[in-house]
Amino acid sequence: MAIDVLNRFPSVPLVSGADRKKNVSRKEASENNLRSFESVFKEKQKENEGLKISKHAGERIISRNINLSDEQWERLNTGVKKAEMKGIKESLVMVDDFAFIVNVNKNTVITAVDENEDRVFTNIDGAVIV
Predict the structure, then answer these.
(1) Do 76 and 65 share a structural domain?
(2) 24 φ/ψ angles, rounded to the nearest 5 degrees
(3) Are 72 and 51 in contact (CB under 8 A)?
(4) Is residue 84 in a domain?
(5) Which are the contacts of 91, defined by CB distance < 8 A and separation ≥ 6?
(6) DSSP alpha helices (H): ranges in 49-120?
(7) Are residues 63 and 98 in the same domain?
């Protein structure tokens, strides 16, 4: 009795070694393009994002009447970039008499303190003074 292997599994395509190699090459090329697009997308997204202020920080800035000049705001941004370069995740950034707690990964100011407040900071893993 002969077994007809080709007709037993008609939905399974027969693929030669050369065809398999082409499929892998296409997959690898696709993954490389995806990684490239992903990295470019993240870079552009980071460039277009400015430093964000959380709702809590916004309330503290208003209630404590913290007014930053353009130069101070730029120094705050510079401090966050320095923290990112050092691998800090939650940073204290000091700008003159103001202290800001920043989530560096999310590029977001979490809270703000002026010179009239107690200056005890917890849950930070680095500080930048600019």
Answers:
(1) yes
(2) -65, -40
(3) no
(4) yes
(5) 79, 80, 83, 101, 102, 104, 124, 125, 126, 127, 128
(6) 55-63, 70-85
(7) yes
Q: Which residue reads 């993240």 in tokens?
A: 42
User: What is the domain count for the chain?
Assistant: 2
Output the pTM of the full model. Answer: 0.62
Are residues 36 and 81 both part of a single domain? Answer: no
Reading the chain (130 residues) residue by residue, the pLDDT tens digits are: 454 444 444 444 555 555 455 555 555 555 555 556 666 656 665 655 689 999 999 999 999 989 888 899 999 999 999 999 999 999 999 999 999 999 999 999 999 999 887 788 999 999 999 9
66 CB neighbour count, 10 Å cutoff: 17
HSE at residue 6, side-chain half, CA atoms within 13 A, is: 2
Q: What amino acid is encoded at 38 in this protein?
A: E
